[in-house]
Amino acid sequence: MSVAVAADEGMAIVTRGLRKTYRTVRGTRVAVQGLDLDVPAGGVHGFLGPNGSGKTTTIRMLLGLSPADSGTMHIFGTPVPQHLPEVVDRVGAIVESPKFFPTFSAQRNLELLAEAIGTPRERVGEVLEEVGLGARAKDTFRSFSLGMKQRLAIAATLLKSPDLLIFDEPTNGLDPAGISEIRHTMRRLADEGRTVLVSSHILSEVEQIADTVSIIGRGRVLAQGSVAALIGAGGETVEVGVRHPGAAVRILRDAGFAAEWLARPQGADAAAALDAAAHHASEDADTGLLTVTGAQPAEISRTLGERGLWVERLVPSRRGLEQIFLELTQGEGLPVPHPDYPDGHGIPPAPGARDTTTGEQQGGAR
Amino acid sequence: MTRLLRVELRRLVARKVIWLTLAAAVLVALFTVSTVYLQASSIDRARAGANQELQQIQEQVERDRAMCLADEQRERARSGDPRVDFGCEQMQAPTAEEMYGTMPSLVDQYRMLLTGLAYPLMFLGLAMGSTAVAAEFGHRTMGSLLTFVPRRAPVFASKVLAPALASAPMAVAALALVLVGVPAVFRWFRVDDSVTGAQWTSLAWMSLRVVAITMVAAALGAAAAFLLRHSGLVIGLLVGYLLLVETFLAGLGGALLGRFALTRTITGWVQHGTTWETWPMTCGAFEDCQPVRHTLSFGAAATELGVILLVVVLLGWLWFRRADLD
Ligand SMILES: Nc1ncnc2c1ncn2[C@@H]1O[C@H](COP(=O)(O)OP(=O)(O)OP(=O)(O)O)[C@@H](O)[C@H]1O
Ligand SMILES: [Mg+2]
Which residues form a coiled coil (chain B) (predicted)? Predict the structure, then answer.
């Protein structure tokens, strides 16, 4: 715990050098390795990463459910878990799935939690109404559908009227209506001035409601920042349909744009093929498709038009969060089962990808 | 802390298990009283139905004695020695008590029954404590609670204390049934049920010790469930130990565990010290052997129980203090 972090009230969550190694009978498993997370206060923050990348582990460490090996964590500037009791009233969390006593009614489950934190009982009725469970308050938790369980879990977090809500895959197993409902709930909570940290695999959902995101892989932050900045980081991509695509690529590249001829061999031979195509106009007569990054559509059509190439098709396409996620986390997740091996053997990890299951002791001094 | 304790007690009361254990304790108490009833009634019945038989025996004995005395007289006359003695005075008819047995005195009966009652009550306390905590791990609600109350020490303490407190009324109910039911049986069969004031005081203390050991068992069960996470494991381990080590091995090796046997400790606690005898191993078949007397003082029994409780609670806490929870 040596990395000092300035207490910053403008940040909801700050972690530095966070590490966690699970010790099991089969050896050790590094779940989080040097995580530097920044979640600004206010708004929805998407906490993204492939399966097993350490999201739930990080959340558990923040909530004091799992001791970290090393590193520091601050919630609203308060160091946790050392001073967690001081800040816990401002944090509501659902970790992985709603967990309540199955044979107790929704009301009793919440009453027990309310009493534990000294919240008046009347609040239980209010939060149940708030999530639309007022009519089912007396039913046992066991008799609830998955969506109702999620709602009850959200109601539980509202018992504290928290400033920070941590939702770990809150839409897991919900139908589209349920997903959209949770999405609206999260957005509403954020619009009320709270901070919502949501871990989810449904990136289109996250893209719709998140103000900021962090993408992690193998226990490290791969990228974080505002959604707009992240999506815009690669620049706008424009799809261009043009005759003589080989020539067009050369012209655009000469003009300083990043152009790519789709459906052409990539790599070492690609340049040669491009040259050949450009010098033998007859081979290059068909309309081809290019992608151009970092240029406005108007600039592209003017540059090509000045050289006598007329653009037949021009479609600006924004790269989605999903695409960025997939690019960033390639080789960071679990191995993808190889289609040629029906028994589900994984393909070897991508070069450079680190194996986190080395079995050696990795915790300790930083 | 008191708030958390209240929450835990409320949670316990809302669970079915606590009512099941209470019902079981009442059943055990009723069973205990019924055994006393059966014993008393069988003695009573035998006595009533056998009056005639007893009378016949008495008459027979009278006749035999008269014959004996006559023979004795005749022998004295024949030998002229007045010291001839056939020992006819020793021919006495048995009394009803001698023939059909008597009930032990009420105080002895109580001491026996309360000691016997301690075991099922402890078992029920252990079950209550261990299921309460194991359920929290089973339903993974321990983590949820900690996101509301992140201080683990009070959470642990309240979850160990609550079953202990909740098990007390159960023990009191069972003891009350026995303490009231047994004298009622005595009176019903017109057996002497007198108990002196001093005896009542000692019985009251003994009952308190039974309540206390039930509470200790509940706390032990809860603390052990923090370690083992399954009530079945906790109960199975204890029952397994009692059966295998204390019954089977002790049967094989005699005083192998000696005073450190758990059953001995429990008896020593409940009865405020206990004594027992063993026969020396070196005893040959034809020698005149003297049994060896052993004593386990109340203080030693209390210390042993205290150490067991302390160790299990400490281990439970050390594990829970840094455990990864869902
Ligand atoms: N209790 C545990 N014991 C041992 N290893 C664990 C434990 N919990 C998690 N892990 C390991 O830690 C790594 C991170 O797990 P974690 O649950 O944090 O991932 P995640 O990002 O939440 O994944 P998902 O998207 O599937 O929920 C995984 O390799 C997992 O196998
Ligand atoms: Mg997870």
Answer: 40-67
